[in-house]
Structures are given as structure tokens and as C-alpha cells.
Amino acid sequence: MLSFSSEKARCTGCGACASVCPTDCISLVYDDEGFAYPEVDARCVGCGKCRDVCPLANYHRFDEPGSRKLCVAARHVERTVWEKSSSGGAFTAICQAFCNDGDAVFGARFEELEVVHDYVLTPDPINGFRKSKYVQSDLRDSYRKVRQMLEMNRRVVFSGTPCQVAGLRNVLGKRYNNLLCVDLVCHGVGSPGVFRRYIQHLENKFGSKVTSFTFRNKRVKMGRFFDYIIRIEFENGRIVEDGSDLYNTGFIQCLFLRPSCSQCAFASLDRVGDITLGDLKSRYEVAPGLRGIENLSMVLFNTEKAEEIFGRMGRHLRMHPVRMEDVARTSLQLRQPSPASRERAAFFRELGDGVLIEQALEKYIVKTNPKGLIRRAWSILPDRIRYTIKRKLNGR
């Protein structure tokens, strides 16, 4: 690793260092936990550019003066877009409002079940960028391509985790009027190595190649959102739908997040993106007036540039103002990082000793107890029912 990020908790794996290296002497190498870290070879000339662009060692802010935050609950006007999205379909609306044909949209997609950052040159074919991916993406040469697109005077939407957006801003080194950065309310990033081993387990178990893995597939009943399930498709036509998939559960319990995630410098209301996207948590508490509308996006407009496209988004997105303090209260990762599981070290130690991935997950995922079962039952209730119960318990 590089000297200024020699501790793994001090490296987000964003790859900004490699993208600015004038001699290309920095490469990202995967460790035993399945996360990529920068390593330098003998071509290094000691220029220091890698340190300058590291978002943890030296983050440069390029804030717009006088900017203020607007916060809305939102859902796309087209039902098909909403159904294909993790939450309310706000990302699609942002691309539609900001981009024209030939402009560039960058986001994370699956490539042979590896999560990578890529781009398209029109807002239409962005389906692969929709839906949450609980695996850290490989940015490859995205930062360099963003710069190329901007210099060609194309409008660019770049979406990613806050550390990826911070890395991009550092690499660019200045504000671009034709760049819109979208960061996510981030739980943390899962290990690509763990996910790779889990896919192999599934293929061995079901005797067929996995062709599609959807972390948050919406289950809709009678035209209304019911809950999220994992949907896995296999080459032989088999489909497995599971509400308590082992990988997904381990991710939620922070069993195999990147070390830097538990100390995330960007888990706060001081956002690095022009726009911040997330789920609208506790929807019936935050926006009780929206009767009959569920599964919404939370959208923060953080800069003047974001406010400028606010009006244009109204053609694609139904937006309802909500109070910033309510959103911050109900969305934990807007206030603090996700704490690492106490079982994290033991889990990776057993994987290193050759224990099968399914056995390690079964062993170290926190099992339910009577109190845990109650919490689980409470968590799967629809928001409107939880809200009604709370009101009755509070005598309202």
C-alpha cells in the first residue's frame, strides 16, 4: 500500500491515486478479504499526486457559495420506472432532467456478476445502473473517462458512493458546470471476494451458472409495494427468491464491509454530491400526509446546480417536501457510519483457513432470539401499520 494510506481503514479503494499517476505505477491489488488496495512499483517518481487526490488524506471541497439543502420524498411518474428501481426511481428522473442524447451517465452495473462502474451516452439505457448492489464496484478508468467527457463539453452524471464522488472531485481538481455528482446514503460496501465465493456456492448448490442476482427486487401485490426479496436467476431457467439470503443478511449485519466503512468520513449531512439519494425511511412518520403512496426515494438537493434542475425534474418525478431533521433522524447513515460486526475478524479468519463460505456465513450471522424475532417481525411490517401501532401506543 501507499505510505500515506498504509492502514487499511485509511483507504476507501476509490482508485483516485491510480487515475492521476503520471507513470501508471499504481495498481489496485485484491487482498485476502477480497478488497482492492493500491500498490506502487519501481516506476514511482515521488511526485505526490496520489496523496493530493486521496479523499481521506487530503479532500478538497469545491462547494458552491450560498448553496442550501432541499429535501423531498419522491416517486417517478412512470410506474414501470418505479418497479425497476430500488426505491422511487429518482435516479432515472435526474438523468432525464439533466442529460440530452449523447450526454454521459456513469454508474455501477453487473458485468458477469462483477460490479463495475461504466457509462452510457444517453439517459435511455440506464437500466443496468438501477437497483442497489451490495458489493464494492471496480471503478476501472471511470475518473479519466469522466474528465474526457467533460472536456468534450458533454454533460455528465456521475453516481457512486460518497468516497467515490469525493475521489472524482479531487481528481478533477475544479468545478465543472456540465458535471452533476450524485452520491448515495451508504450502508457500506461489501467484499467483492466474499460475493464471488458466494456465487460459486450457489452454482455448486443448484448445479447451474448464476446469470442474474438482484439484491432488492420489489414484491408488488395488488398493485402495491409489499417488501423486498433477493432474486437469483440461473442459466438452466431456475429462479430462487429469498427474503433472508445469507449474503444479504451478512451485509446488513456489517459482517464483511470494507475496513474504512466503519470510520467513514462522509457519513454525515455534509454531503459531497450535488444530489444525495436514499430510501425514505419511516415513510409514515416523515411524510404522514402522503396517503396511499409507499416506497419513495429520499432526495437531497445540496448545491445551486442541483436546485437549478429541481424544476425540470418535476416533469418526471412527483416530489413532496419533507423536513430535513426528520429525514436525518430516521436515516442512520446520514449521521454516522455503520459499525463493523464484532464477528468480522473471526469470519475472515475462518475463510482464510479454508472454511466454506456458506458455513462461515451460517456461523457468524447473528442468530435470532426471542427479542430478535420480535424485531424481525416489526421490521417486515409495512410502514403504515408500524406508524398506526406507534400512534396507538402513544395515545394519539
Name the descriptors.
396 residues, alpha+beta, Alpha-Beta Plaits, 3 domains, eight-stranded mixed β-sheet, three-stranded antiparallel β-sheet, 15 helices, 13 strands, 32% helix
Order of helices and strands: HEEHEHHEEHEHEHEEEHEHEHEHHHHH
> Alpha-carbon distance between the termini?
57 Å
Number of helices: 15
Quantity of strands, as a count: 13
Structural class of the helices, strands and pairings?
Answer: alpha+beta
Which band does the percent of strand residues land in?
15-25%
Q: What spatial form do the alpha-carbon principal axes imply?
A: globular
Mean pLDDT: 89
**Regions with little confidence, pLDDT below 50 for 5+ residues:** none
What does this 3D model show about the protein?
Helix 4 (90-98) packs across helix 10 (304-313) and helix 12 runs antiparallel to helix 13. It is globular and about 60 Å long. By secondary structure, it is α+β, with helices and mostly antiparallel strands. It is built from 15 helices and 13 strands. A hairpin with a 2-residue loop joins strand 4 (104-111) and strand 5. It has helices spanning 16-20, 49-53, 79-84, 90-98, 142-151, 162-172, 192-206, 246-252, 283-286, 304-313, 324-330, 344-352, 357-364, 370-380, 383-393; strands at 26-30, 36-40, 70-76, 104-111, 114-120, 156-160, 179-184, 210-221, 224-234, 239-242, 275-279, 297-301, 317-321. The mean pLDDT is 89. The longest helix is centred in the middle third of the chain and has 15 residues, at 192-206. It folds into three domains: 3-53, Alpha-Beta Plaits (2-Layer Sandwich); 61-365, no CATH class; 368-396. The strands form three sheets. The chain has an eight-stranded mixed sheet, sandwiched between helices. It starts with 15 loop residues before the first helix and ends with a helix.
